[in-house]
Amino acid sequence: MSGQTSQHPFNPGELHPETALVAKIPIGYARRHLLLPCRTQSGEVVILSGNPEAREAIDEMRFLAGPSRVVFAPAGDVVALIDAAYERAQAPEREIAEGLSEEWDLDVAAAIEETKDLLDSPDEAPVIRFVHSVLFRAIRERSSDIHFEPYEKDLIVRNRVDGILYPMVAAPRKWHAPAVSRIKVMAGLDIAERRLPQDGRIKIRLGGKEIDIRVSTVPTAFGERAVLRILDRSSVAVGLTDLGLTDHEMSAIERFLSRTSGILLVTGPTGSGKTTTLYAALRRLDSGTKNIITIEDPVEYQIRGIGQIQVNPKIQLTFANGLRSILRQDPDIIMVGEIRDAETAEIAIQASLTGHLVLSTLHTNDSASAVTRLVDMGIEPFLVASSLAAVVAQRLVRRLCPDCKAPYTPTSAEARGIGLREPPASPFHRPVGCPKCLQTGYSGRTGLFEILPADETVRSAILTRSDADGIRALAVSRGMRTLLAAGAEKVVSGLTSAEEVLRVTQED
Length: 508
What we know:
- The protein is an alpha/beta fold.
- It is globular, with a radius of gyration of 27 Å.
């Protein structure tokens, strides 16, 4: 092999992909030979190689790149840099949408092709490029959902990042049907059926990583609306220590999880992280010596070693019917995705009274309301009091970006707004916005928790049919920390802003 090679320690921060050369080299070739043309900060062209044996390919790359030296690096690092370089090199979806013209083929048939790695398709039909570019941008920006929304004159695409919807791109109205058809083909749905809601799943690869996407379509006045839920497999690996629990809260939850019977409820609105908390609890409980079975709607993440049942009302497999069958499977621990009706609640409570630990969720605003909701469903108070171990209410707040958050001295009114009697000695912080946080001022989320233990005092209140306000006041008098108080602690510590805490707790 002619030319210079380098045995210097590999430092990825010193090398940047050479965009002009990347555009000329197919990603399949770059991946196969583990080669990426780069430039140093001084402007020198460097061929990054993860395979010293690929001498012929290296010579071909150097012939294309001109005078250059070769730097060897671990294969895994080279693959990661290749995928990142080709992701950036893809035409952004906004440019695609703005450049749409009448001569481009919008035949729905163009959308019906085998799903490949999104980074491997720069020359596909325009509708496929558009959908794929929307997908990889949303994944890159840590989106949880993508909304394809048709209106009279255009198609609006929005993505949800850290619980907030942001507009991503607007496309001409005529792109709606081909884009939704492409999504339906990827999800295995019926593209000819546009009058009924449909649900499906997509499994794609992005830079070699497997990503699951749940798809829902519903008919609207201007056509089908599609919502894609991006299921981040990494969140299933989240442990209790990653949820944002304080040491005291962690000890309380672990104490409840150590029980052999009883019911532990997690409450909160949609999108407040209830499922993630339950999965984290199951991971903590999964010691390999217990039989753990769940019934969910839908099963979002597969957990190795745990039996998971998907609700299917079409064949009468409801939460209640599935729960009855689970009890014949000799379970130690049962997770019910959601208690939606009295029948499910009654079976779950009976299971908890017969030697099973039951975990489930309810849609209520706070922990005390969960207790009264069960009674309102028709469950006898003595059953609720004898079976309930604890209720955990939770919310998710956005974390302030550590690179751009700005300190300031809060006013007395601001401090009182989040439940503090007077401004603390430490400053509050406000969001600013920078490239790392996509100019939002926030990056990631953490949990706020309100834990109501069903001790003897609370059980007595349940038996006397106390309302939610009475149970809440009693629990607070005995040391329960409310969601607002939990939020105030995170504001004072600089993790989030006062505005963010008020946004997620103001309904309480």
